[in-house]
Amino acid sequence: MTEATGIVGEFLSLKAETDADILAMQCGDFYEFFGDDAELVGEELDLKVTSKSSQGQSYPMAGVPLQDLTPYLKALVERGYRVAVADQYETDDGHAREIVRVVTPGTLLETSDADAQYLAAIVVDATAGSSGRSGTGGGSSAGETTYGLAFADITTGRFLVANAEDVDEAMTECYRFDPVEILPGPRVRTDDELLTQLRDRLDARLSLADTESFAPKRATHRLRGQFGDETVDRLELTEATRSAAGAVLSYVEETGAGVLASMTRLQTHRGDDHVTLDVTTQRNLELTETMHGDRSGSLFATIDHTETSAGGRLLKEWLQRPRRSLEVLETRQASVEALAASALARDELREVLGEAYDLERLASRATHGSADAQDLLSVRDTLAVLPRVAECVESTPDLAASPLTDILERADREQAAALQNRLAEALADDPPSTVRQGGLLARGYDDELDDLIDRHEAVIEWLETLADREKREHDLSHVSVDRNKTDGYYIQVGRSVADQVPEHYEEIKQLKNSKRFTTDELEAKEREILRLEEQRGELEYELFQRLRADVADHATLLQDVGRTLATIDALASLASHAAENGWVRPTVHDGDALEITQGRHPVVEQTTEFVPNDVSMDRNRGFLLVTGPNMSGKSTYMRQVACIVLLAQIGGFVPAREAEIGLVDGIFTRVGALDELAQGRSTFMVEMSELSNILHAATEESLVILDEVGRGTATYDGISIAWAATEYLHNEIGAKTLFATHYHELTGLADTLPRVANVHVAADERDGDVTFLRTVRDGPTDRSYGIHVAGLAGVPDPVVDRARDVLDRLREEKAIEAKGGGSSDPVQTVFDVSSGSFRGPVNADGGEPEPDAGETLDADTQAVLEELSSVDVNATPPVELLTKVQEWQAKLDD
Ligand code: ADP
Ligand code: MG
């Protein structure tokens, strides 16, 4: 096969230089793709693919116009591709091309998504003894692998580093930042299990950065160069963390995004300052998206009323990273309270904030050199928002007395005003979106420019009035003056009068109905105007670049102002939601007590006539067993508690009449498993690994929510696991726990474990009809109402009626067997609560049931009974339920 030459050959050799998935190469006014790249791009972007031949071979080819590259680039990168861009430049003998940038998900500057766009690196701490990991939730903490992490958002200049004590914490951190691209360090690359977790749990592209860039020495050097020795030393970063941070910096530099200058601050993210929300919990509580992956219906979407994208980004960050510091929370609360009480001022504030643009992002664009004049106008207008916001706060006594005043202090208003003025003086009112064609700057900004503009305009004026002058002077009709690409400026005269033109007219073209002429004077003016246009464009561009550099030099100021406005926006959003939905300021404290009066679920209350409920927990009542019929509201009740605690720990108000909330260090949940099923992992396995995570990670100060643990397996297994987990959480961990279970047997635990209390969601059953009261009351419930749910699910009436008969018969038989005493629940009699062991039809070792002497049920009935009690009504499709009921009937009829 012959080597391709010419343009295709150049493309292929550039492509061989880069590890990018796709290369876009400039060829004149187009960016072209060849070969496989052309086909890929053609398919992904619906571009027309043609072909180009080279050395007798034909290559697919696709292209996009130069100025249209950005949207295509974005689309490709958002699909997870890394795209190299090669630009063309002039040389002595023609032109050459080189790769100027590799655009990746984490280094895409042109994003239009309001979300943060984190590029992450994760590194195993090589100083730790063994390379063996304990795996998800297993093993001991001794010799556990630790991790260093770095997160950079190049669109805002945010740069954070974090330490993780084990793999779960590393995953939790990753989930908190939700990066779009991850650079796994050398040892992470060989860790299949962690890689799988990163791939499954996060929607991020895994990219292989240069291994060298992770080398601790080189990385540290890189880090010091960026943030200064003093900062790096003060933060006492671990080697792994320095390695991760250095690798991120190198990657940003190598991909050519050119935004390093906007990253001026190195921040440490300390897990200790934040409430641990493991991956599962963030999903279970539907913080930023629902279990089905929708944004709307999430907690964030419900409470987000921010006016700016930066404010929305910050509010989301708060939700993903709730705080543990009373001081931080009380400060936010005080601001929210003041804002909630000042409706008018709040509305005004929000209206003013609505005029703000995304300053952090604009700062990055200025640093990168891609900001145009309209961007700088946006900077100007946003800087102008700051004093108006300050004015609004200061003129409202409640707001002026609140911590909002301190928040405003974080931005240097004097500097901001100075920059705003410089921009206001410099920029034209309505500049074009191109930066090289003039029209960017205002009159009065620069004398030399003004002079050029005056002269330019004088020539234009001369040209505009030329036609009239010629008509008058030479007594001509049908005369016009115009300009086109080939002829330049010309005087056009109608054919009827074309022979009356004066001597000095020089004919340049003959058209059907007219003739075009030029004159020496016109030619001179034309040369002058071209010269002036070029000079003006050059000077304006130069002045503009200086202005843009001035803005870039103030990146930190812009980040401060942006952050300040975003903070006030987020606080005002919390206040608005609180005011509109009757939320209250919770009392937060360091103790154990959790007292919520008339609490509601923040999301469900939006769409449902919600029945409020109380929760009361403290040191002596730290474990609530929640029972109640299916569909009565157990899961909702528990999530509501978790959401209220979470909202309190972002510093917001909560949906309740009154709330007193002891701060927690982590929220752990095990609720439902819809999405896991979709991923093809067995629910029981998932359930157990989640339980294992919780039992490892939760502490005395955590809040644990367990929903139907043990459901995924046979009844006795399930009860045993639930039983043991309850004891462990109660005796060993001491975490605040809410545990919903359909194993009524467990309710007896309240008698033996001092901190366990029973509550149930009440329902009314009359004549076989169940009314859900949605009210949580003290004490256990004893029925599961499964048949009622079967009816709700659409199982035909005759089957439901028959099931009721069967159940009644079973209950009667059980009652006779129990000689009139005990419970009416058939399962309860097989489990001895006081000893925690099985009796009756089950062996003490949990083996197969054997009929014993006193047994009055035949084996078939016994089997039906067991199946009936273990069937998961929520998880079984109606049709299957129907089939089951029919099978049971058949068995019982035999
Ligand atoms: P369970 O976990 O007991 O099976 P869920 O918590 O899933 O029940 O709730 C079942 C239904 O009842 C849900 O549709 C929910 O919206 C509604 N619900 C739950 N609690 C309340 C409440 N306090 N007020 C109004 N509706 C509620
Ligand atoms: Mg439930």
Structural account:
The protein is α/β, with parallel strands linked by helices and 894 residues long. The protein has seven domains: 6-103, DNA repair protein MutS, domain I (MutS, DNA mismatch repair protein, domain I, 3-Layer(aba) Sandwich); 119-273, Nucleotidyltransferase, domain 5 (2-Layer Sandwich); 283-432 and 549-581, MutS, DNA mismatch repair protein, Chain A, domain 3 (Orthogonal Bundle); 447-539, MutS, DNA mismatch repair protein, Chain A, domain 3; 587-783, P-loop containing nucleotide triphosphate hydrolases (Rossmann fold), CATH 3.40.50; 796-848, no CATH class; 851-894. Helix content is 45%, strand content 18%. It has 31 helices and 29 strands. The strands form six sheets. Strands 13-23-24-25-21-26-27 form a seven-stranded mixed β-sheet, sandwiched between helices. Strands 3-4-2-1-5-6 form a six-stranded mixed β-sheet, sandwiched between helices. Helix 11 packs across helix 21 (555-581). The longest helix has 34 residues, at 520-553. It is elongated, with a radius of gyration of 36 Å. Bound molecules: adenosine-5'-diphosphate and magnesium ion. Magnesium ion (MG) binds next to helix 23.
